[in-house]
Automatic annotation (TrEMBL):
Taxonomy, superkingdom: Eukaryota
Pfam families per UniProt: Retrotran_gag_2
Protein name from the UniProt record: Retrotransposon gag domain-containing protein
Organism (species): Chenopodium quinoa (Quinoa)
Organism lineage: Eukaryota, Viridiplantae, Streptophyta, Embryophyta, Tracheophyta
Length: 181
């Protein structure tokens, strides 16, 4: 939701950084119009049971804050849940592409919760470190993916793991998809 609001240049309404200008009637009316539109978007994206409890909130900022209080988990709790989901996710007869997509969505959300500092001076040593770190992360994803595959993919899993250079997880998917029965 934040991405959609930022893309429409409306995120400031829900964060409270764009406030209503009470001194300028034209700006005030424009603010009210945008505020109502954002409330409408939010109400349209929540379930009916949630909507019933927030339908009378008339400030997008207050609405956003109320929803955050009710539904946001701390980063630690969210990271724990996502890691638990990741380790519990198994193929269980699903198509390779469905299984991979589920894993990928969890990996991406986890990555979004790990804020790394911005490096302004990239030396060869830092570059080497980042390359090594990236390779380790890719291998970790590959191992997680292969661990959750159904047993029928045991021979293909072994072949992938015996490669001199381990493949990217996407390459492993491409290798496994034609093997689906």
């Amino acid at each position: 939701m934040e991405i959609a609001l930022a893309g429409k240049r409306k995120l400031g309404f829900v964060t409270g950084t764009l406030r209503k200008d009470h001194d300028d009637e034209v700006k005030s009316e424009a603010w009210e119009t945008c505020n109502s539109m954002i409330i409408s978007w939010i109400l349209g994206s929540v379930s009916n049971s949630i909507k019933q409890s927030i339908v009378f909130v008339n400030s997008s900022s207050h609405l956003w804050t109320e929803l955050e209080r009710r539904f946001s988990l701390t980063n630690g709790s969210r990271k724990h849940k996502l890691n638990k989901d990741l380790y519990e996710t198994k193929q269980q007869g699903k198509k390779i592409s469905e299984y991979y997509t589920k894993m990928k969505s969890i990996w991406e959300e986890l990555e979004s919760l790990h804020a790394l500092p911005i490096i302004t001076n990239i030396t060869s040593e830092v570059s080497s470190f980042l390359t090594s770190l990236s390779k380790q992360m890719e291998e970790h994803k590959l191992f997680q993916f292969l661990n959750g595959l159904d047993d029928e993919y045991g021979p293909q899993r072994s072949q992938l793991l015996m490669m001199t250079a381990l493949p990217f997880v996407e390459t492993a998917c491409c290798y496994l998809e034609p093997e689906e029965s």
